[in-house]
Design a protein that fits this description.
This protein has 30 helices and 58 strands. The chain has about 1250 residues and is α+β, with helices and mostly antiparallel strands. Keywords: Hydrolase, Protease, Signal, Thiol protease, Ubl conjugation pathway.
Amino acid sequence: MFVSVVGLGFRQVVFSFTMFGDLFEEDYSSEWNSQYGKEKKLKTKVLEPPAPREFTNLSGIRNQGGTCYLNSLLQTLHFTPEFREALFSLGPEELGSFEEKDNADAKVRIIPLQLQRMFAQLLLLDQDAASTTDLTDSFGWTSNEEMRQHDVQELNRILFSALETSLVGTSGHDLIHRLYHGTIVNQVVCKECKSVSEKQEDFLDLTVAVRNVAGLEDALWNMYVEEEVFDCDNLYHCGTCDRLVKAAKSAKLRKLPPFLTVSLLRFNFDFVKHERYKETSRYTFPLRINLKPFCEQSELDDVEYVYDLFSVIIHQGGCYGGHYHVYIKDVDHLGNWHSQEEKSKPDVQNEEEIDDDPLIVLKAILLQEENNLIPVDQLGQKLLKKRGISWNKKYRKRYGPLRKFLQLHSQVFLLSSDESTVRLLKNGSAQAEPALQRQEQRLSQTHASESPGPHDGDSCPHWFDINDSKVQPIKEKDIEQQFQGKESAYMLFYRKSRLQRPPEARANPRYGVPCHLLNEMDAANIELQRKRAECDSADSGFELHLHLSPHYHFFNGALHPTVSQAESMWDLTFDKRKTLGELRQSVFQLLGFWEGDLVLSVAKLVPAGLHIYQMLAGDDLTLCEAGIEDGEDIFVWNGVEVGGVHIPTGSDCEPVLINVLHLAASSEGGRCQQVVEAPRVFPSDAEVRAVLTALAVPGGALFVGTTDAVGEERWVAIPEEDLRKTFRAQGLRNGSSLLVQASDDGNSLLLRQGKWFTGMNEVNWLQVQNLCGVESEEKQVKISVTTSTVVLEVRTKAIKELKLMKELAEDSCLRPINRNGKLLCPVPDSCTVQEAELKMGSSLGLCPGKAPTRSQLFLFFTVGSDAQSGAEMEIIVEETTSVGDCLKLMLAKCGLPGDTWHLQKTDWCFEAGEPLCEEDASLKELMVCSGDTLLLIEGKLPPPGFLKVPVWWYQPGGPSGHWKSHWDQMDGSPAPTQGAPGDLYAEASLRHVGDLEISEEATLLELKAQAMTLSSSDLGVPSPAFLRAWTLESKRPSRLLRINPQRLTDYKLGRKTEICLEPLQKEENLGPHDVVLRTQMRIPGRRAYAPHVDLVWDTAQGWTACSLRQCVAHFCSLPVEKIEIAKYFPEKFEWLPVSSWNQQITKRKKKKKQDNLQGAPYYLKDGDTIGIKNLLVEDDEDFGAVRDDLGKESQKQLALGRQKSPEALHAKSSGAFSRAKTPARARAPEASLSIHVGSFR
């Protein structure tokens, strides 16, 4: 733990531990179309409020990306009512209030306040899951921290430390100590004089071993009952006897807390294999435990030693990835352990046996019909009437459509030839009656039994599994499943059995909650109800796409329109709560005239065209019950044919588009030497040999295109017996490639393709390339191996087959080569192929130099922040080497002088990550592994609590209303040119003026003021109010920092953040809703734009297109109906017109969209370019400029060049094997977990 003192304001304490770091990483384009149809209104969707609580009446917590460990601990604290109520007892007079948090003079204890609000939401707010965003903000966590998972045991200690600091000076100052702290006494007893030497220490939790221990009680026995004897060569020096004597050492629990926390050491390190592992062996723990055998003898009652288990935090996964959830005992009976169905039915299991088996349900319905015969449509209606739920809602997801289920059970049901009626077969009837009788008899016995009393079975608290947002009831016996395995208990929480809850707290979530939080939650619930009502009314309409059969014809295995899409497809908005019969009537009225039967079927656009899947039957079913979704394609036809052609329907005959390669036929009737590749359509249920029939090939072989483990394309032969399989059974999908080899073609086609093929046997070799710098006859050889082959044997064979000198056997190593041709970390000779994780068929390089031993690390390092520059160097060091010594070795190898350097790790995308701050710590302690890449960065690290911020001056291209004179004198930047705006950031001048070391507690205004004092920043700016601040990413302004009084910590600036300051001609004080846009007026008749002018747009009323158009019109002094605006996308050289969406009309709507320019397809943000067209002088639809045409043409030529030279690119990458050497992708960088707390002493 470390404490840092910050220069501004009161002290800030940062609690930070590094235990397992990122050991537990957690295992969730929109197109714009300029063509609009007619008579179709776009509607906005109300932002959907959180869902209400489910039947358990308990609230989960939403996962922010990697915060499952936090959620599990918060739920445990929430279900510790004594902790929760003690926190609630602290009022605003002690903790302060949220309204005062921005007041520098008020000491607001923000973390306890946020915990109070979080617990109140979990108790009272009617939502399925609460958010921890405000709480983690109070911790001082950045968005990166919220995506990174840590160890829950580590969090438990840090959070309690932060709370203790936050509550100093309040009546709750001893809250943690009073509830969770206990005392252990360690004693050494001299065997000679019987004198006792003892040492007492506090504990927050008991950490117990798991390895080679049967359970918790055994672990406690080893720790607090068994003695360690000092004798023989290990004697103890007794102070009383003043000599070495025999002695016994033991430990006992002296003081027990009301709540006992037990941490299980499930994660260990294997010092032989040099890797972490998780202990998954069986480890039992009791629901009730008596700790008296492990405590000092005292006169306390036995009941003081008895504890009950009430929470089990579970880790699921391995040591490098996983997920946390928690089993909780509901001490206050706040949750509903039985579902509504379980409450209304005495024995749910018996009725579920019938409801969950559709065979029994359908047999029972058919047995009641005359002749056991019924139309299929009526069968669905009977099911709905009998069970109160439709087939689609109850069974479709698991068993598929009703007709398909009846077809699959042909031994029980007999469908008519047109599949309109179904009959129960006699053997099915005979089997059904006894089963049904047994079920009815069992149910009647259950109903006849005496109903339980209102509190029977509810006197004892029940258990729940809380997994982030999901809350499920469990039984007490389910806890035994967490004794062992990859999903197993990780932390145990016990409470003293004598702790009794007051009767008024039972099933009363309002008990103990302060009045101000009760009022806040009541108001929030009223607002939630209002939003849900709005959302329900706005979200009841479905958009359906009606395809009309008279405008379609069947061609090449699928339906295709014969006219334009606007004529062949109509869009219809229909209430999803209405029935299919009402939909059919609406379609009939919409068409005006229809001859014959009108059948509606669900269709889908596939690569081959439009395909019909199933008819919509059951006029009494609502659209939801019929399984119709928003945006569904509906085909309107007579149910039999289209244009005189019978139409195949269903998923079984879905058309697939296959790329077929074969030799073209010559004019003489033979086969010429030209390879033809053409797409062909086949039904999914057709046999694969239909390809040969379609090409009129009497006989031959088929090969399917695949990609092997190293990314090389190959052709795999399809066995002759598999040619009778269907395309679906053979695994062929849309886009699959088939190569046809006629029997008279020989091998010519495969040779011309330049590709190789194999049978179905697995590859069992490794390819070794000679990269030793010694000439050999062969450049590479294939070595036959198995998974158990030792790497040393592979290396020896490679040297022999390459006919190299035997001396290389003592001074060479094998290094894997990745897909990009880069050399990775050497493989130890003692590993097997499987242990080294080498894939069959992969490539290795035989390189000079020995591989590192098990106690050494092979590291890549480079100077500067670019880990992929191709200038990486390599070094082998001992894992016990300190960071400082490693830095000196790397500097010496690079020949760099000085001591103003530091080391940084790289993240998963090989960019600069977290710095290695502790120079005395060993590489092993900081979890540096072989193959990691370290960066040598010039400059000393700033002290804790400070940021080192590189500062740039920024001048956009084509400045308007900015400081120019000093800039032009200093940088000589060119005058702006007219034309398309291009990329204003690319045209901008960026000049580095120095690095600024500043406190994290400083404000943005103070940062600007200090930046003006840098020696190279003399631009004549009068004051900080004349500067606009941006964060810099990839040498471009990214995020606008708009509020001057706000602290830098509130902006969540990381260590790598760079700031650019833009000088302005007048003062600017942006509010939280102000957005800065670069506007450019189009010059009529010239396809060019005037220099840009900044526009500040107030988005307080929403990010709507209408609001932006009105703001731009007022800015340009033009009528709003006489302007057109568009956003510029410089990377595509394209303009996207911005219209008032509520006035737009389209024929087809693919998806509901909100009227919000922050979302797709605009993604509007600060600094974007907005083009303005004056319709009074120019009314064409073109927003483009000459520069856009040139940019698009350049992109097109670049793309063509890439397509034409794949061989050159392949040769370039192959030739780089020996030059570029980057490591394999590293694990996420080590990061400590910390919570920032103000000091209130």
